[in-house]
Amino acid sequence: MNYYSTKFRTIEIVYSIYKLLNKRRKIQIFLLIILNFFSSIAESISVISVIPLLSFLSRSDLNYNLFFINNFINNESSLLIVISIFIFFILVTQILKILNLLFNQKVASLVAIDFSKTAYKNIINRNYVYFIESSSSSIINSLAANIEAFVLGFRSILNGITFLLISIFLIITSFAVNAKLTSILFLLLISSYIIIGKIISNKVLKNSKRIVNLTNNIIKIIQESFGQIRDIILNNSYNFYIQNYGEIEKERKFKQAENFFLSYFPKYIVETIGILVLALFALISFEDNQSNQTISTIGAFALAMQRLLPSAQIIYSSWIGIRANYSAMKNIIDINKKSSNNLFIDKIKTLKFEKKLNLRNISFSYKENNIYLLKDINLEINKGDFIGIFGKTGEGKSTLIDIITGILIPKEGDLLIDDVSVLQTRKKANLLNSWRKNIAYVPQEIFISEGDILENITLGCTDKNIDFMKIKECIDVTQINNFIEKLPMGLQSITGENGIKLSGGQRQRIGIARALYKNKSILILDEATSGIDLDTEEKLFKSLIKYKKNITLIMISHRKKSLQFCNKKFFLEKGSLKEII
Q1: Alpha-carbon gap, residue 239 to 247, rounded angstroms
Q2: Which is nearest to 508 in space by CA: 560, 438, 562?
Q3: In terms of CB atoms within 10 Å, which end of the chain has fewer, N or C?
Q4: What H or E segment, with its residue span, contains residue 577?
Q5: Domains in the chain with CATH codes
Q6: How much of the chain is in helix, strand and coil states, percent to nearest 5?
């Protein structure tokens, strides 16, 4: 990759971000550029205003054709007026700089919020297969670390624009002071940064990609180690994870440090060149007996360079900042570009389920041209049925349930509710989303938030008014009333992170109570009673049948005895579903 291709990559990133900005953000950036414009003018005037002051102090003539300066101030002007004008322009410049910094950071934060929110929305609205095939660490990396890198990169873009304008006006001012000296310094400045940039650009980009991968690995190690902390304690395998974490973090920090160094080290080279050129100019001018003129010239020029060199360095650092965060920025841009499939639609009406559900000739595989996990499945479920499905692990029981819920779309076949297809017409009438509103799903592994039991039963409910009568009914049905009554804080008892203070069976019953509280017409239990003893499970199902007479229940279990209350039982094996009579 050469210098020009990296330059175009930077332009591509900037243009891609601009295209994704909404109208309001574009207006804000336009206003920011206008503020930058006035700030740059003020910066230039503050440099020009030092010339009369130095000329007055050195008793030299004002022979510079610098806008209105000669007409406004002459050698008879008082020192107080000269100093007052100088101070005024300095104050105006600093005020504009402060306003520019404030507005710059605010706009950067607003854009980051927009991109972060859109990225989260687009990811969470992706189809279920995406989450099956993607690692959680890469998703977390996209939404956390990559967003932070995007913010740094976008701030680099805004800083680059700000200081590019300032540099342009300072160069124009410097040309007015001394065109020859400015030309020499400008050429040296530009050539130095171009040569350095050409040498290190590829290195920075490679580091950028490597940092993204290493960050993903760090998140993965943290998740794995926390997720199997019991095994780590029992096997005393701390060092394995600590060593892996340390090695990855060491490389990541070194790559970040290397990019930081490559971003800032040219400053010292360019500053040295600038000082040497100024010293050489002063020496030549003094030998030509132009000392008085030289003092005001070098003073103004030194002030201009004192502003220009840092500006040039910030422009360069901004470019490196974009390169250093290129991979993360492109990742966020790509996520923002991708459609969210419009899975989330507010105020969806529930599709009425009054008679029956039919799976008709359903076949499914997770990848194209792969072996079918399910083949020609036909199933009819009447409203009020208690359906039991069992089979060996990996036979596709959960996949079948995901097709019934509409989370997975089959390769072949159809899902009908009261003889109406919810698959063939889903784009037109949104029946698929309407169908899902009938379903409460309880998996084997229950998510428990780090709150109290009440919060976990009502988790996901948008209604802030808790129906405590319904809560009582749910905990009675799920047989957790005795357990809760023994706790000092009752429903307000803290469950711990991921329910660590609860047993597996208690977590599952809280999950079932959560599903019942939602008051859906269909309840799906996907191995949701595997951690419950048989006696408690029997009481639970008897209560369900007694209190929830109108509910349709679909249950998956590897324990045949758990299916004793089902009025229809099916066995799933080798992709085929057979009813057991």
Answers
A1: 12
A2: 562
A3: C
A4: strand 576-580
A5: 13-337 (1.20.1560.10)
A6: 65, 10, 25
- Strand bridging mode 439-442 / 522-526: parallel
Whether the Cβ atoms of residue 524 and residue 554 lie closer than 8 Å to each other: yes
Mean pLDDT lowest among 286-290, 537-541, 551-555: 286-290
The helix/strand/coil state of 70 is helix
- Encoded tokens for 210: 């490597």
The Cα-based distances of 455 to 88, 420, 488 in angstroms read 61, 37, 17
Answer yes or no: is pLDDT of 550 > 50. yes
What distance in Å separates the CA atoms of residue 44 and residue 50, rounded to the nearest whole number?
10
Q: Are 308 and 157 in contact (CB under 8 A)?
A: no
What are the tens digits of pLDDT across the range 402-459?
999 888 888 889 898 888 888 876 554 477 878 888 899 998 888 888 788 888 888 8
CA dist., res. 215 & res. 209, Å (int): 10
Q: CB-based contacts of 450: which residues, under 8 Å, 6+ apart?
A: 494, 495, 496, 497, 498
SS3 sequence of 334-396: HHHHCCCCCCCCCCCCCCCCCCEEEEEEEEECCCCCCCCCEEEEEEEEECCCEEEEECCCCCC
Supply the pTM of this predicted model: 0.73
User: In this structure, which amino acid lies at residue 519?
Assistant: N
Tokens of 249: 């973090």
Strands (E), 391-521: 412-417, 420-421, 439-442
At which residue do the structure tokens 């996907």 appear?
Answer: 526
DSSP letter at 530? T
Q: Quick one: pLDDT at residue 581?
A: 72
Please report, for residues 47, 60, 309, the alpha-carbon distance to residue 54 in angstroms, rounded to integers and kept in the order given.
Answer: 11, 8, 22
Which comes out higher in pLDDT, residue 75 or 228? Answer: 228
- Here the tokens at position 440 are 């409460």
Per-residue confidence (pLDDT) for residue 462, from 0 to 100:
59
Class of residue 367 by CB neighbours under 10 A (exposed 0-12, middle 13-18, buried 19+): exposed
Q: Which strand (E) or helix (H) includes residue 552?
A: strand 552-556
Token pair for residue 62?
């004002």
Q: Which amino acid is at 214?
A: L
Let me know: does 303 contact 278? Beta carbons within 8 Å: no
What would the two tokens of residue 365 be? 């595989």
